[in-house]
Every structure is written in C-alpha cells, then in structure tokens.
C-alpha cells in the first residue's frame, strides 16, 4: 500500500467508448479492503506519551454512581462486520466497569439494530454490573442493513425500555460506523428535544459527518471512537462529569481539552494519465488509434482537526521520584513503583545504595590498547561510572581508584583520592584512551605494586584490596606469573570481559567464579550488581553439615533439546560440588521428564558425591513433549516418600529446571508438594518469562529467571543460597507422612508415631497384622533423622 495522507490501492480504468469497462475491479478492491482493520488510530489525541498514560490510568479509576438511565444502541449490520461488533461490545463492557449498576442508581439496557431494532435487554432487567456485562458478552451479531433511523424511531415510540422516563437523565450511546441507509436527522432532533443526551461512538471506518449529526451538543464532547477503548471510555465519562450528570473522578482530577485528529476513509477516483486505445467507426471499416484517459481508484484518509476532552489525574510520578534514569509506574493515585536500570535495582526509588558492606579498596584496571579500541575503552569507563553511582555514598567504607594500561601502566585516579562521588565521576571523564600494545601481565604486576599507594597498614588495620580488570583484548604477554604475584600480595583478582578472553581471565583470576563475561554494552551494565556481590564475598561451601533431601527435576523434552539438556546437567553437577553427599547429611535424587517421566536415581541410590556426579552425567535425554505437572506428581507419589528413601524430619527441596514449555498443568501438583512440607524452586530458562512459570513460583517467589542455558552458571550462587536457606527451615516430622498404607502420623513430644489402619502394624505401618480384624496398632516413637 502506498504510504501517506492520500495513500491507497488502485485499479487501472482506461475509459474508452468501445472498450469493456472493469467495474469488477473496484468491487473487488472494496471487498478486499472491507476486511481490513485500521492499522493506525482513526481518532488520535495529540498529547505526550506521559499524558496518554494518564488518560488510560484515569479511565480505570473513574466511576459514575448516580441515578441515570444508560442505553446502548449497537450497530449489528453487515457494514460493521462481526469483528467490529465484538469490539463495540468490548467498549460497552469497559463503560459498564465504571458504572455503579443497581436499580436505584445506574440502570443499563441494550438494543442491537441492523435491518430492524432488536431489544437485547431492557434497563430494569439486571441489578448488578456482573449480570449486565455477562449479557453483553452473550450478544450475537445479526447482520443486515444499517437502519439507524428505524432504531431511533423505535425509541421515539417506546421510550427507554425499562427506564424511569424523564425522572432521571437519559443517556443514549449509539455505537455505529455512521453508514445509515435511512434518514437520521429528524428522529435524532426529536430525541434531543425530549432531553435524551446522545453519544455517537464510531467503529471501523466511521463517517464522522453522520456521527456529528447524531451527537448532542457540544458535538466535540459527544463523538468518540470505540477502537481506542480506554480513550473513548475516558472521553464519555469526562463529558458526563462536565455536564454534572455524575461525579466520576477524584476532586484533584481535571477535564482538559486536547488537540486531536479524526480520519475518514474515502474512495476517490484519480486521473493517472492516458493510454493508447483503439476505436472503431460505424461509417467505415477503419479502426482509429486514440489516447484514452486512465484512472485509478484509491482509498485515502481525509483528516479532520478536532478538540477532545479527557480527564487526567495527578499521580505520584509527577514528582519524578525515580532517580538515575528509573521509570516511574503509577499504581493508583498515591502509590508507584520504579523500574530501575540494572545497576540500581537494589535501592528505593533507584537511589544509589551501598551493598558493598565490607571495608574495601577497589582498583579498576582498564585496558586502553589498540586491541580494545576507543569504543571498548569508553564502555569500560561507563561501567565504572555506573558502578560508582550505584554503589558509593557519603558514608561508604569503600574507596575506588582507576588505572589504565596498554604498553605502560598509568594510575589515573589513585585509590581513595576522591570521596565525593561527583568529583570522582568528573575525574573519570578525563581519563584518556592511549592505544598501543596489550601488556596485561606487565600492567597487573605494576598495579599490584603501585596501584594501592604505600599501604603500609597490615593485618586487621588494612582494608581488603581488590583489583578489577576490564578488557576485551587478549594479552600480548604472559599473565599467569603476574597473577600469582598479585595474589601473593593478598589481592583479590576479579575480571570483566568478553567471551573472547574468558579463558585468559579465568587463568588470571584463578577461578571461573571470579570472571564476569558480557555479550554486549547493555549486558555489561547488568554485571554491576554481580560485581558488587563478589567484592565482599568469601568462598563458602554449600550446606555441608545440614541434613537435606534434595531432588533435581530436569526438563528433557524436545523443546529444550539435547545440547541445552547437557548444559543443564553440567550446571547441576557444578552445584553438587558444594554439598557433602552421604546418608547422614545430604541425599540427592534426579528425575527427568519429556516423552515420559523417569527417575534417573532416587534419594538413597548413591551414598557419595562422586557416585552422584557419575549418575548425573548418565541421565538420559528423552525428547518428546514434556509435562511438568505429570513429573511433579511423579515426584510426589514415587520419589519424595519415606518408602523411596526420604527421611522423616529432614528438610526437603525440589529444584525444577525447565525451558517453560509444558508447565501449564503444574500449578496444582507444585502446590501439593508445598502443602506436604516440600520446598520447590523453579529455574526458568528463556528470553521471556512465561506466565505459567510465574504461577509456579508460589507466594515466596521461589523463581530464578535465566536468559539462556549458557547463563545458568551465573546463577549458581543464588541457587545454592536458596537451597541452604530451605535446609535451615523448621520442618514437621509428619510432612511428608512417614506412615505407610494410609496410616496417620501423630506428633508427640518432639517425635511422632503412626496410627495404623486395620490389618497393618509396625513403626511405619509396614507389616501386616496376623489377624485382619486386629485393632489399630500404635507404632513406636521415632526420632528424626539427621540429628534433628
């Protein structure tokens, strides 16, 4: 389609006397276009995006609670079509959301019209908002001609069906495309003379001139567009508020005029040029050549400037409470929340908050070589500035310095020279790019010796010293020796870089856990919180002395794929290095699901960590369609039970790793596990967090969202922290029940006993009674496992 104010599609039409005409082209075009929904608004309010947001928010807060009769007159003709009819119903339902519907206040009725009017329900039929909305939803499109005039005459004869006559204000909301096949002027005038207020609401490609004829005065305030539901609802309620029919908003809210534009879709015939055609003559056998005019039919939008009246309310975001580039999202009239940039998500209002709670000196070592490029150097400086803004304040115990290197080391900002954050940021702006060779090893050795000043203090008097290297370029000299030299001087080495230098940075820092890898500029800034966490962290093992029954449930379906499944396995094996596996401390099991659900190994299958690691590597990839709900029920019935190795009185946790597909049926099973005393954490992998996964998180938000499978390793600390937290939670000795064969677990004096069903006996009701009619056996008291 040709773009522009007069854009359209056309069909060629050479107009020659003896040539057959092609009216079918025009008919075909009109038919094809009739099924097209407007691709851009046919009524548009010209205000800022912020004001549009306020108009939308106000439409949800406005309420009308007065004695008033409101009748919807909804066009159900073929020219509107079924799709636009459904949108008309949606608009009517949105308006009802703002009405206090009851017999003493707002009454609502509806008529559908096409070739003839049809009463859907009178105003006295329903006494609640829910009933009215449900009835509107059930309205069925009828089709036929657009006889708007007949529908208006029907109201003149019968009044508002079920209404209170003229004792209360009468509001008629006509929802139509304005393409009436009869006269509307006279019945419209007569209704207005009887005191009926008429709103004309357009759908599809409306004829605005007819809507203006239908609408009450002032017409600007009584003509709306149903396709923009929230805007139209606001406009209607704003007009009711201005006319004192009902007070619909807070006294602080205001109805204000805004410039707007309405568009009409018209079919025009446009002369394109001339083409050669042939003409015969009756007087002779001669055939003459001539030039014939050539036209095309086009659909064009004709614009009409207008003024639209809308209500906006003050919101807490007007004071711009979110700092550091945060986005304020209002929640009603007096509440809001801030969407913060990655580095500022920890503080209220995105304010800088020192999460580096230890006493620390940090030297940022920035590569400034030709291999890094000026752009890469600027990114590194921006990262340091974002870290400083997000992590330092007046009472910070952290001190920051900056050095750059290529062939030589230059300390640009000595550690601790600037305590004032603005001064430090200005100093960073002045650090220049140098270019040259990338001698990371030499710079590292020099930084370890000179980067932190004289630093004569030792022992408890000296703060922890951390060197953070930022580079995108491989070193041109050896780094292992200088790195050992730096660590010998009690420096903690951390590194931030791209995938291209990951291996070198891991060698330099001595551990993959001390390397932060980023994929692009925005991803780099997301590493600020992660760096803050590492600056003061001390290596800590997992819950080595805490009893725990731990089960991993891996999505092995086709939606994950074998390569991603292998990354899941690697991640779980890495996590297991933090746990002491034996029957008295941590037991580990594994379930995989895809085309089927399979217990790779149960909780009591392997007694050592080495055996668990081997078994995890051998877990099968299944493929097929996976059902997380079925897998969780399998865990509930066949894995996390005493008869399958679970220990009474020991905390139990299930970690679900999934790509998010096939989780729609898992909400009930996951709640069964939680109700049975089993903690469940969901690790969802994928660029978009699916709503089904959010529902699985539960009231404690037990959810970790990971963008890609390759990023799982960055969330290992978070996962282990959650597992260890669950291992310390108090547990019930009777959840899950240790009693078999439907025996009842009874807590008693810090222990438990099993009350067995007829025919069973023993501590856990696991033995058959000698006589089937024996009385219920009382199981002996049991002590909890793991020293609980």
TrEMBL record:
Residue stretches making up the EGF-like domain: 314-351, 730-766
An example Gene Ontology CC term for this record: extracellular space
Molecular function terms, GO-annotated: calcium ion binding; identical protein binding
Keyword Oxidoreductase: no
Residue span(s) of domain VWFA: 69-240, 361-535, 549-723
Keywords: Disulfide bond, EGF-like domain, Glycoprotein, Repeat, Secreted, Signal
Chain intervals for the UniProt region annotation (Disordered): 767-788
Keyword Electron transport: no
Localisation: Secreted
One Pfam short name: EGF
Cysteines engaged in disulfide bonds, as pairs: 756-765
Ranges of Basic and acidic residues composition bias in the record: 770-788
Subunit organization: Forms monomers and multimers.
Family annotation (PANTHER family): COLLAGEN ALPHA, VON WILLEBRAND FACTOR A DOMAIN-CONTAINING PROTEIN 2
Protein name, per record: von Willebrand factor A domain-containing protein 2
Lineage per the UniProt record: Eukaryota, Metazoa, Chordata, Craniata, Vertebrata
Annotated gene: VWA2
